């Protein structure tokens, strides 16, 4: 417990009494179980209700995140406790006074293999205080333990998504005791967390548990069952098992499963993540949204200009023209050599006109960022816009880290959303000074306004129209000022979409 925190009043949940902390002008409750430990014969399967406890349970320390391996990107892997027993959440609230405040439920990213809801970066206190909202963050199963799919053995997959549904049901049943309104819930997430949000939008089991969704740098694609089957067979082989021995998976130490997963090279889109499943996720989120399956759900979605720069090495050898052309063609197999050359020229001209770095590595990063993040965000907004209002943003503030080489990279917007730009480890990444403080306030207030009203407009921003396919109006959150732009980087988008 920090010196600034004191014990808060107790709160009664449907499983028993808990006691949290008072921190400044808000209360924090950590590690509250929202489901039973997913161990033994419940491993890999849908979560079960948490058991009740006697007396008052302390909610003053972090609960465990899902088991995971270390990662080379700082902050990607969980920084605190990990355990197979990881189905817990945190609540940050201005008061447990029975008021009906908007509720914001955060789902962390990490490629569905890493991350934790308890990271200081995601501290819900600043949002709770600034917006008079209740913030919830959660842990859920990751990797093979969260997404292994062997339907014939009673392991249908998507357990990690079903964990999130269970957490939302906990919110529906309990958040009123924390001063929140269960009828006014917004889910939000970044990267894999945003992909999870898009899946929740499409999941029958999540219907009615939230009314608004914020997707930061990610849209779920929901892999084919065939891909999940290949991943399952590969994992079993690494463990020395076959499908006739699946029952042994429930008895193995979780650490052995994690070790096999780590040794198997299960990368993004090649292993464990959301999978189309007849019961839990019948169709890909983009199709569900396009067909009106998310009608009535407000949407705020966007990406960062230079997403993939977070994932590239800090030092790279210069890239020649032929190498750039080969890399672009490898990413766009439908493109001819002439078309790929034309695309590169469009990107170079666009970036030079805007005063942005435009050497060959920068162009490759720009194409990759658009392919993986930017275009998917636009398409998701366009799919939802005919059915319910959707707002689109682009984050272009550049990190000062690595002498500016990161640009407006993946994950950079998160400390601005949570109001945590000043915490240890973020100042060098997010930057500091009046412009950063202004941008932080603009973004926090937009997210809060959206959670409160379903519309992100507030007096600190220029008027932000809902997205529609003609104007493609986008809020550009930049260091100098937030502006509304019609189809920013549109020449790049048009050229790339023609080759996808």
Short note summarizing the structure:
By secondary structure, this protein is α/β, with parallel strands linked by helices. It is built from 14 helices and 13 strands.
Overview of the molecule:
The protein has 2 domains: 5-190 and 224-272, Rossmann fold (3-Layer(aba) Sandwich); 303-497, Rossmann fold (3-Layer(aba) Sandwich), CATH 3.40.50. Helix 8 (321-331) packs parallel to helix 10 (360-384) and helix 9 (337-353) runs antiparallel to helix 14 (490-497). The mean pLDDT is 96. The longest helix has 25 residues, at 360-384. It is 32% helix and 17% strand. It has helices spanning 125-131, 143-147, 159-174, 192-202, 225-238, 254-263, 285-290, 321-331, 337-353, 360-384, 414-418, 427-430, 434-453, 490-497, and strands spanning 5-13, 16-23, 26-33, 56-58, 88-93, 101-107, 134-138, 180-190, 212-216, 298-304, 390-395, 473-477, 483-486. Strands 1, 2, 3, 4, 5, 6, 7, 8, 9, 10, 11, 12 and 13 form a 13-stranded mixed beta sheet that branches. The protein is an alpha/beta fold and 500 residues long.
């Amino acid at each position: 417990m920090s010196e600034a925190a004191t014990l808060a009043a107790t709160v009664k949940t449907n499983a028993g009494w808990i006691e949290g902390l008072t921190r400044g002008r808000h209360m924090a409750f950590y590690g509250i179980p929202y489901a039973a430990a997913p161990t033994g014969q419940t491993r890999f399967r849908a979560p079960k209700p948490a058991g009740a406890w006697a007396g008052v349970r302390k909610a003053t320390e972090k609960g465990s995140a899902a088991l995971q391996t270390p990662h080379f990107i700082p902050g990607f892997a969980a920084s605190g406790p990990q355990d197979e027993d990881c189905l817990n959440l945190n609540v940050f609230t201005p008061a447990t006074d029975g008021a009906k405040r908007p509720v914001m439920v955060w789902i962390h990213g990490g490629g569905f293999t890493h991350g934790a809801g308890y990271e200081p970066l995601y501290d819900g206190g600043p949002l709770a205080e600034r917006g008079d909202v209740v913030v919830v963050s959660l842990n859920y199963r990751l990797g093979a333990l969260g997404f292994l799919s062997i339907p014939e053995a009673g392991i249908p997959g998507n357990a990690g998504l079903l964990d999130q549904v269970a957490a939302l049901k906990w919110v529906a049943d309990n958040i009123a005791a924390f001063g929140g309104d269960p009828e006014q819930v917004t889910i939000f997430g970044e990267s894999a967390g945003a992909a999870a949000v898009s899946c929740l939008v499409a999941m029958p089991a999540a219907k009615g548990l939230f009314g608004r969704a914020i997707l930061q740098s990610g849209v779920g694609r929901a892999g084919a069952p065939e891909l999940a089957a290949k991943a399952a067979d590969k994992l079993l082989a690494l463990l020395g098992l076959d499908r006739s021995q699946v029952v042994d998976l429930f008895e193995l130490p979780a650490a052995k499963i994690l070790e096999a997963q780590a040794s198997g090279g299960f990368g993004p889109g090649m292993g464990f993540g959301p999978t189309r499943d007849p019961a839990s996720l019948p169709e890909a989120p983009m199709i569900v949204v396009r067909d009106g399956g998310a009608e009535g759900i407000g949407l705020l979605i966007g990406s960062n200009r230079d997403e993939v720069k977070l994932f590239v090495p800090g030092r790279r050898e210069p890239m020649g023209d032929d190498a750039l052309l080969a890399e672009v063609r490898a990413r766009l197999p439908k493109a001819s050599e002439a078309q790929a050359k034309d695309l590169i020229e469009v990107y170079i001209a666009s970036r030079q006109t805007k005063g942005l770095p435009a050497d060959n590595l920068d162009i490759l990063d720009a194409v990759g960022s658009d392919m993986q993040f930017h275009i998917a965000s636009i398409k998701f907004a366009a799919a939802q816009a005919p059915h319910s209002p959707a707002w689109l943003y682009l984050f272009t503030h550049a990190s000062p880290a690595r002498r500016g080489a990161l640009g407006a990279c993946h994950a950079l917007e998160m400390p601005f959303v949570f109001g945590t730009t000043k915490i240890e480890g973020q100042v060098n990444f997010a930057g500091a000074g009046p412009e950063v403080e202004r941008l932080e306030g603009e973004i926090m207030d937009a997210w809060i306004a959206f959670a409160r009203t379903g519309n992100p407009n507030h007096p600190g921003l220029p008027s932000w129209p809902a997205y529609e396919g003609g104007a493609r109006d986008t809020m550009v959150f930049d260091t100098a000022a937030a502006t509304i732009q019609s189809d920013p980087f549109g020449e790049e988008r048009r050229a790339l979409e023609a080759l996808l």
